[in-house]
Amino acid sequence: MTAPDWLADAVFYQIFLERFANGDPALDPPDVVPWDAKPTRENFFGGDLQGIIDHLDHLTSLGVNALYLTPIFEARTNHRYDAVDYFTIDHRLGDLAAFQRLLAACHARSIRVVLDAVLNHCGEGHWAFQDVIEHEADSRYVNWFSVEGFPVVTRPEPNYRTCSGCWYLPKWNAYNPEVRDHHFQVARYWIEQGIDGWRLDVPYFINHTFWREFRSIVKGLGNDLCIIAEEWRDPAEWLQGDIADGTMNYTLRDLVLGFTADHSIDAHGFADGMNALRGRIPEGYHRGMLNLLGSHDTERVLTRHGGDDAATLLAFTLLFGAEGAPMLYYGDEVGMRGDNDPGCRAAMVWEEARWTPSLLAGIRALSARRAATPALRRGNQQVSALDPDTVLLMRTLGDNSVAVVVHRGDGVVLDPAGHPELARFLAGPHRLDARDAVILEAR
Are 337 and 302 spatial neighbours (Cβ–Cβ below 8 Å)? Predict the structure, then answer.
């Protein structure tokens, strides 16, 4: 079984719920800060589910047809990777009825919705862990976690297993059948509500046996449901047909930004890396790769490019040209800036006067071109270098071919006489200016 076919045509948009849009101020917590305040790891801005519904026109204008939402479950933090109840919408986001309205509004626009499966750990406030704190060894949930002794000590050093040493994120004991049953109930419940798939948070911290059973349960409810694993290095282990349909493609991100932002690799290095990456992904899973330039765990893409919107647009050109599903992180399309967490989690800028028009127009054009060109969505990929500063990314679907040429230098003339691989696309020389790109279809 390979990745669902619809992923080949997908354009994803990641929303960090707390910071996208405040559609229902009645849900705001008492300590909500102004929308343009500086983000911290503790403050709340009031983003909610209604805010997404209110701005679906913006997503549609970008050609978005799939949403990846960071956690929506009841939690204590603004990021909500510390669930206290997996079966309840966080009260600051809305309720189940609001979520159903969001699903209905998205599905009416042919936008699929993927949720974050945070099953390696929960929050210190989760009812099962609180029961362990209260009843210690007598708690019926004591073996749902890995506690070394009693009383439970949270700080300064927790005496229980956690996610990466974070005291308020106790790690589930996924070897416990009751824990696995709880997690599989979570997977079933939200699919029954109408979601279209799961993104697996830090799956590398849980054994593969668990994820194989998770996949079996999910796919048993619908083959078109997608499973995307978080992975920062090699995607191959997740794509053997028994766990995921694709991964978050941070390896592609490293290659693109190494070429367009850091200049740490040239076009030859980029081509070699992209071709090697493609070779590591089994056939049938390339379309499931969630290609990204930024996320809630990285600095903003415009910040990485030093504020250079032209260079940033080169990166997006490679993103939309590459095999796999492009993903936009909220606000990157309008030129938001910010360093890594918490800087990358600022509230969405909705004042158009503060947008970067060239970047937004360029991304909309790239998305529209991809939607109109089957080879850009479904064609096989081959990457080469025309010179150290110029990448040629070709996509071929049957008799149709598309060439994406990205030049990071000070200007270049594309000449079929010197590059026979361009003869199918150009009748004669074509000039690219500094930090310029072009998408060519075969003549």
Answer: yes
